């Protein structure tokens, strides 16, 4: 049913999303909470109360060390690495963007929020940009890093954009999530321009003479094969000729001992 991409399939999917969505929640004081940010706070407080009554820790490992995610377009998007970071962020955001001393979220968070953030801390930091404050004082967030990359490009600062994009993909930052790599492939690589000199250099590296030169320099054959695969992928992305390089790329991975990847490259639905 899903393979046919039918209207029935999409209607069924929308219905499932509606059933799975949490629109409101009752907090520990029997109040109905509908604000998306407050529902997270209420849920955490409720679980902590249950854990305290049972004299157990609410989560396995450190308290509040749960990732906050959102299901969007059939994908799981990371919102925050921990519940603490998520609550800290929304409290700092409320404080920074409040023009009428609004503290609804801060008051609702009670002790849990006060342990994470103190009203006025953003202003006292003298950091004018909220994104910069969050990255420095709270933690790393995927959407903020992506926004920083785009802002660097808009200012014409390609070096800073590329450095930030590379930092985003470091595996220790968001382990288990492929979004950083997708973002770099879609945004960073698309904006980066290749000149004729770079393309000629790549073509030289994947030639037989180029490979022999690397071997003479002492490179392991497996590494030379992996380098060739990487260069061929670059050429395919620039020239738009994936079908011409597909088999050759697969052979490179097989030559490097990565037979499963070679088979994956050749797979056709």
UniProtKB/TrEMBL annotation:
This is Uncharacterized protein. PANTHER family: CYCLIN DELTA-3, PROTEIN IN CHLOROPLAST ATPASE BIOGENESIS, CHLOROPLASTIC. It comes from the Eukaryota. It comes from Kingdonia uniflora.
């Amino acid at each position: 049913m899903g393979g046919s991409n039918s209207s029935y399939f999409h209607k069924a999917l929308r219905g499932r999303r509606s059933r799975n969505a949490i629109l409101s929640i009752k907090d520990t004081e029997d109040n109905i909470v509908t604000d998306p940010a407050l529902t997270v706070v209420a849920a955490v407080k409720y679980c902590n109360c249950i854990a305290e009554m049972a004299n157990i820790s609410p989560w396995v490992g450190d308290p509040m060390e749960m990732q906050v995610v959102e299901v969007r377009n059939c994908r799981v998007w990371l919102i925050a690495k921990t519940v603490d970071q998520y609550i800290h962020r929304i409290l700092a955001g409320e404080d920074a963007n409040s023009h009428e001393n609004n503290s609804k979220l801060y008051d609702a968070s009670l002790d849990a929020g006060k342990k994470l953030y103190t009203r006025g801390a953003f202003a006292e930091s003298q950091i004018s940009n909220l994104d910069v404050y969050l990255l420095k004082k709270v933690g790393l967030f995927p959407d903020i890093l992506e926004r920083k990359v785009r802002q660097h490009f808009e200012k014409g600062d390609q070096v800073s954009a590329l450095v930030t994009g590379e930092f985003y993909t470091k595996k220790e930052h968001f382990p288990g999530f492929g979004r950083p790599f997708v973002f770099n492939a879609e945004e960073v690589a698309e904006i980066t321009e290749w000149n004729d000199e770079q393309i000629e250099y790549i073509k030289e590296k994947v030639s037989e003479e180029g490979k022999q030169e690397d071997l003479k320099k002492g490179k392991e054959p497996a590494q030379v094969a992996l380098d060739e695969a990487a260069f061929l992928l670059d050429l395919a992305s620039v020239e738009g000729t994936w079908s011409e390089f597909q088999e050759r790329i697969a052979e490179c991975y097989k030559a490097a001992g990565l037979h499963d990847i070679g088979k994956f490259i050749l797979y056709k639905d």
